[in-house]
Amino acid sequence: MPRELIVLECTECNQRNYDCDKNKRLHPSRVEYKKYCRFCRKHTVHKESK
Prior knowledge:
Number of domains: 1
Helix content: under 10%
Low-confidence stretches: none
Shape: elongated
Structural class: mainly beta
Strand content: over 45%
CATH class: Mainly Beta
Mean pLDDT: 95
Number of strands: 4
Number of helices: 0
Order of helices and strands: EEEE
Strand order of the largest sheet: 2-1-4-3
């Protein structure tokens, strides 16, 4: 199964906001997305956490 479930964590407040999946074959390293954080109330960079 090439898709893996991941959790995205805000880099500013360290809250875990999003659950999603990624294609491990296309993105073998950790991914980063710019998404909205409801705790910071702005768009921030979210990194993949363990």
